[in-house]
Design a protein that fits this description.
The complex is a heterodimer. Chain A is α/β, with parallel strands linked by helices. In chain A, about 30% of the residues lie in helices and about 25% in strands. Classes of the chains: A alpha/beta, B alpha+beta. The interface between A and B is medium-sized, with 18 and 20 residues.
Chain lengths: ~425, ~140
C-alpha cells in the first residue's frame, strides 16, 4: 500500500522539480523586493536587484533572515500583502520579550493543508481514518496545522487539543481513533495514563501517530511504538516557515522528506554562512517559495542537520533531512514550546530587586519536560517571612508563565550559590539527554 | 524596647546550619535564642545574638542573605498559664502574631519569649498593661 497524497508532486523528477523551484524563486524574490521594504533594504546593502537572481544557483547571493529580523519587524512589517488579505495570525516565542509573528493568507492556509495532507497520508491517514489531534490549538501552530491536514485528507477529525488526558483516552477508546498527532512526550504520557486507567490496549484501534514539535530520540520512538502498539512517525516544522508540514517521515523512516517544492532547503556553515557541499552537517535554512502572507528568503532555522538527495525506497524524490542534531543558538524546546534563556533573564530583570544570577534546569520526569528556574536571593528580596519568599517565587513563576507560555518551578537559592563560570555563563542545565 | 533579630535565608542543603553556627563562633558571637521556619526548599533561620551588627556583617561577607527585623522580647512567669496571659492580652487587643519562639536559657522564675506581631508599638503597651515584662535590647543582648 502506497501512502501518497500527491504522487505526481512527491515523486516528481528532480530536474523537473528544480525548474518549478526556479520559477517560483524568481517570482518570490520579485514579490518580496516590491512589497517588503525591510528585505529590499537588506538586498540594497550589497546593491542586489531581483534581476540578479536568475535561478536557484544565485540564491546564495541573497541575505539571510533570522529571528532577530522578525523581532525588528514586529509585528507585521515582514508581511508581503495588505492586512486585508491576512486571514490568520499565529505567534511563537521570540528571543526576547516579543513573540515571533506569522501571517497567513487564504492561499497559505490551503498550502498548509496540502503539506500536512502529505505528512499525514505518509503515516497512513486516509478518509477512513479517525484522526485525534492532541497538539495544542491556539497561537501554537501544531493543533490547527494537523487539523487542516487531516480535514484535507478527509479523515474524521477529533480536535481534543492537549490536556484533560483521561477524557482524551476515553474518546480515543470510544470513537476508535486510528491516528493521533501530538508531541512525543505527550504520547508517552497518554500511554502511561492508559495503563493507569486500566484499559486493555486491545480495545483501541490506534495504528499510527505523527509526532513532533520537540526533540525526541530513537529510544522514545521505540517506547511509544511498544507501549501504544503503533507506528510512530517523526514530523518537523516551525511556525516561521508554515508550522508542522515542513518535512515528514515515510514508512522507511530514513530521514524526513522536505516539501521542497514549497520550502527550499540549504545547509550552511553557521559561522561563515557559506553553503556547504551535499551531505555536510550544518545549519538548515529555508526559503518559502510560494508563501504569500509572510514569505521568508533564506530563513535560518538554527537547527543543525544534513540533507540526503536521491530517490527514497518509498518512491519520493523529495530531499530528506536527518533528525536535527542540535541548535546553533541556545533555544530550548520544552514541552513543544520554544524557550530562550534571554526571555527568562528579561522576566527576572523586570521583576525588580532580583539578582541577575539564575540557572535553568530542564529535565524529563515521567516523560514530561520540567523546567526549574533557580534564582539567587539578594538581601533586597529577602523579607524574613516564609510567606514573603513564597509569594516572590509565585510572582516570578507567573511572569515566566505569561511570557514563556509554560509553567516553571521557581526556586530561590542562596546568594553566590550558582556557579560563576569564566567567560560565557552557564545558564542552562539540560538533563534530558535527547541527542 | 525592640530587639534586633537576624534572619538568614538558608537553602535546604546539608551542612548549612553548621556553617552558620561555626561562622558565628569564629566571630565570638553568642546565640541566645533561635528558631527555624522551613519549607521543602528553604528555611529562614532567626537568631537573637549578643552582637547583632557584627553577626550581620560576618554572615553577609560570607554570602548569606541577611535581614534585620525588630521583635519584642518578653519575660513571663515560669508556671502553667504564664505565656497564656500575654497571648490572651494580645488576642483581646486583636493583635495577630506572625511568629514566636522561646529563648535557649531563662531568668529565675521567668521564661523568655520572642514575639513578632503585626502592631509592635500597640503590643508593647498591651503587654505592659497586663504585667508582662518587656525586655530592653541591652537586657537581651547581655543574656
Amino acid at each position: 500500500m502506497k501512502h501518497f497524497w500527491d504522487e505526481t508532486l512527491e515523486c516528481m523528477d528532480r530536474a523537473r522539480r528544480r525548474e518549478l523551484q526556479n520559477e517560483r524563486l524568481l517570482k518570490l524574490v520579485d514579490r518580496v523586493y516590491k512589497r517588503v521594504p525591510y528585505y529590499r533594504a537588506k538586498m540594497g546593502e550589497t546593491g542586489l536587484l531581483p534581476s540578479d537572481i536568475k535561478s536557484l544557483d544565485d540564491l546564495q547571493k541573497l541575505p539571510f533572515l533570522t529571528k532577530i529580523d522578525l523581532r525588528d519587524t514586529y509585528p507585521f512589517s515582514m508581511f508581503a500583502v495588505p492586512m486585508d488579505e491576512i486571514v490568520r495570525i499565529h505567534a511563537s516565542s521570540g528571543t526576547t520579550g516579543k513573540p515571533t509573528v506569522v501571517g497567513y493568507t487564504a492561499a497559505d492556509i490551503a498550502l498548509w493543508s496540502e503539506v500536512m495532507a502529505r505528512t499525514l497520508s505518509s503515516a497512513g491517514v486516509t478518509k477512513k481514518s479517525f484522526m485525534q489531534v492532541s497538539y495544542g490549538y491556539g497561537l501554537f501552530t501544531g493543533g490547527l496545522g494537523a487539523h487542516y491536514g487531516a480535514e484535507r485528507v478527509g479523515a474524521s477529525v477529533i480536535p481534543t487539543s492537549v490536556g484533560n488526558t483521561q477524557r482524551q483516552i476515553q474518546l480515543m477508546h470510544d470513537f476508535g481513533s486510528t491516528h493521533i498527532a501530538c508531541t512525543p512526550s505527550y504520547a508517552l504520557f497518554i500511554a502511561e495514563m492508559i495503563e493507569e486507567m486500566g484499559f486493555n490496549l486491545g480495545e483501541f484501534k490506534l495504528q499510527a501517530g505523527t509526532f513532533g514539535a520537540e526533540p525526541w530520540t530513537e529510544n522514545m520512538r521505540k517506547e511509544i511504538e511498544s507501549r501504544l502498539r503503533i507506528k510512530a512517525y517523526d514530523i518537523y516544522g516551525l511556525s516561521e516557515i508554515i508550522g508542522p508540514g515542513v518535512s515528514f517521515e515515510c514508512e522507511h523512516q530514513k530521514g524526513l522528506h522536505i516539501n521542497e517544492d514549497y520550502f527550499y532547503p540549504e545547509i550552511i556553515d553557521p559561522d561563515t554562512g557559506k553553503v556547504l557541499p551535499e551531505g555536510s552537517m550544518g545549519e538548515l535554512v529555508f526559503t518559502t517559495l510560494t508563501k504569500e502572507g509572510m514569505p521568508l528568503i533564506r530563513y535560518r532555522t538554527k537547527d543543525i542537520t544534513s540533507l540526503t538527495y536521491g530517490t527514497c525506497a518509498c518512491g519520493r524524490t523529495l530531499v530528506r533531512m536527518n533528525k536535527p542534531q542540535g541548535r546553533s543558538d541556545d533555544m530550548l524546546i520544552i514541552r513543544g514550546v520554544n524557550v530562550f534563556p534571554s526571555q527568562v533573564e528579561e522576566v527576572l530583570l523586570k521583576t525588580g530587586g532580583i539578582s541577575p544570577h539564575y540557572l535553568i534546569v530542564v529535565d524529563r520526569v515521567n516523560n514530561l519536560d520540567t523546567m526549574e528556574v533557580k534564582v539567587e536571593l539578594t538581601d533586597a528580596m529577602f523579607s524574613d517571612s516564609v510567606k514573603g519568599i513564597e509569594a516572590l517565587e509565585r510572582r516570578i513563576a507567573s511572569s515566566l508563565d505569561s511570557v514563556l507560555g509554560i509553567a516553571a518551578k521557581v526556586t530561590l537559592v542562596e546568594p553566590k550559590s550558582i556557579t560563576r563560570s569564566e567567560g560565557k555563563a552557564v545558564r542552562v542545565i539540560d538533563n534530558r539527554k535527547l541527542l | 524596647m525592640y530587639v534586633k533579630q537576624i534572619s538568614v535565608f538558608v537553602e535546604n542543603k546539608k551542612g548549612r546550619l553548621a556553617e552558620i553556627t561555626k561562622l558565628l563562633a569564629e566571630n565570638d558571637i553568642d546565640i541566645s535564642a533561635l528558631s527555624i521556619a522551613d519549607t521543602t526548599d528553604f528555611g529562614i533561620l532567626r537568631l537573637i545574638v549578643n552582637k547583632p551588627e557584627e553577626a550581620q556583617k560576618a554572615l553577609k561577607e560570607n554570602g548569606f542573605a541577611v535581614k534585620e527585623t525588630k521583635v519584642i522580647a518578653i519575660g513571663v512567669e515560669d508556671k502553667p498559664g504564664g505565656l497564656a496571659v500575654a497571648l490572651k492580652a494580645l488576642d483581646d487587643a486583636q493583635i495577630g502574631i506572625e511568629y514566636m519562639y522561646a529563648f535557649v536559657g531563662k531568668n529565675d522564675n521567668e521564661a523568655l519569649v520572642i514575639l513578632r506581631v503585626e502592631e509592635q508599638q500597640k503590643a508593647v503597651e498591651v503587654l505592659g498593661g497586663c504585667g508582662v515584662r518587656v525586655l530592653s535590647s541591652d537586657q537581651v543582648y547581655s543574656l
